[in-house]
Write a structure and sequence with these properties.
Chain lengths: 280, 317
Amino acid sequence: MTAAAADPVPAKNGPTVRTTGVAKRIDVADLNIYYGAFLAVKDVTMRIQPNKVTALIGSSGCGKSTFLRSLNRMHELIPGASVEGSVLLDGRDIYSPSMDPVSVRRQIGMVFQSPNPFPTMSVYDNTAAGLKLNSKRMKRDQMDAIVEKALRGAHLWDEVKDRLDKPGSGLSGGQQQRLCIARATAVEPDVLLMDEPCSALDPIATLAIEDLIEELKQKFTIVIVTHNMQQAARASDITGFFNIGQSGDPGILIELDETDKIFSNPAHKETEDYVSGRFG
Amino acid sequence: MKQTSPTASVPGEPAKPGTHGVGDRIFSGLAIGSGVFILALLAGVAIFLLIEAWPAITASSDEIPGGDGLVSYIAPLAFGTVLAATLAIILAVPMAVAVALFISHFAPRRVADTLSYLVDLLAAIPSIIYGLWGIAVLGPALVPLTEWLADNLGFIPFFEGPASTTGRTMLVAGVVLAVMILPIVSAVAREVFTQTPRGLQESALALGATRWEMIRMVVLPFGKSAVVAGSMLGLGRALGETMAVTIILSVSGGVTFNLISSDNPSTIAANIALDFPESSGLDINVLIASGLVLFAITLAVNMLARAVIERQKLDES
Ligand SMILES: Nc1ncnc2c1ncn2[C@@H]1O[C@H](COP(=O)(O)OP(=O)(O)OP(=O)(O)O)[C@@H](O)[C@H]1O
Ligand SMILES: [Mg+2]
């Protein structure tokens, strides 16, 4: 689609044949996100560009996770939770009544804060978990190939290729998180959402995941929530800054721009205060 | 082992090492004491049964009721006991898991609360009431079904017939036992299903799983060993259940898999309840010997359950 053309960086990505999982653009318009009657995030309008890493930063409780989870309809799983406004995935509203939330989540994958491989499944089965869903039948060798590709893509293959049949929970924290990334990417989503994926990891494992993110954006649109300014500066192309007035007020998107600009010359004073550490 | 997050140990503890030690010692003393007490109790029961059963075990076979020896006397009872309990488990466990899943993952909050309260109430009904209900309501109500089964599925040994006209059958006993153990099995299952880590459930959903796929992927594996444990608890109760079975079952004594006729093997517990008041002398020892067998069966079931659960834990870690 327009994805590859619009993005000058990964030109080599163009001719790759991919039936599913073409990085897609997300257009959020006037999004209000509620927990019951409580307005948690107010009036967000933003474009998330394909094949770019968009980082979301902001102080704790300003609604980054809430916003992220509204992008693949995970938010509505919380009793009483609701949204208003629209989220268009390449022009199609994921909240339109004809959209099945299950297929939305299949196209927009998610990696969570704490590494959580399925404890009863092996490394292999964890990676293949999404492939076996929706009563898809797949030949064993085809699945083997996808599992290997996903694990290689997550920079995990060499570490686990000899113990694919061992439980995924037996890996180290960093390995588990990469396993979760492999699990999420094996189904070839169009967009990958990551909510503080490195917060449980040491600096080395964190750098490994950042490298990985840099590579993953060739294939996916990536949105990552992080508390780590260096990480946002290093790993992202675009940065969005969320803030909140007082507690009880809704979070709002203050500013969204090229990462360089946000960190060197932001348009808003609040953003500058936050990125330079002079915040609250 | 499971998904518990590593919490930091409580700081500021070592203020008073003396009291700390005393508390620890009291606690460990209590723990060891109650452990030993329970073992002693178990051993005491076993020894009592063994001593009281001994005259029957050593008696010559023509002294035993029936005249064919102790084994021939107890075997049909043990068979009836296991048959009724197995039937109950087969009927109750799928139902209990379904109810537990409905409560934990499908029903809206208020419905779920009401329903789990109602299911818990089932456990509070005395077994004599279940017996009365079985013989007065359920039995007659199932007669048309059993007749149909005998006519159409009679080639299956379980439904060989002829169908009882009163409904005092093994099938009805099994159904009543199933209803009786449903609350305990579903309570255990519900408890553990609701404890399935949220992160795992969300991960499955975020992969594009439907709710049912998520349950199969995460919730059921997580709850499997608890369901086994709950089922064993239920099985233990079904094996020992006396009143309901005593009232419902019309007994002839033979060994048969036929679930719908009026000729049924009795169960150990029901047989003791029926015969004990009129027994004297060696007959009492014989009944106690059958009690010893029931004790052994229950113990074996529980040990098996432990083994299954341990095996699963090993598989997971
Ligand atoms: N399940 C929930 N029910 C009700 N309110 C919630 C729920 N989850 C979050 N909130 C509220 O929504 C607001 C935004 O929370 P959110 O978790 O999105 O913040 P965040 O920016 O991700 O914070 P952090 O950086 O600490 O992760 C907070 O006021 C929070 O209390
Ligand atoms: Mg958060």
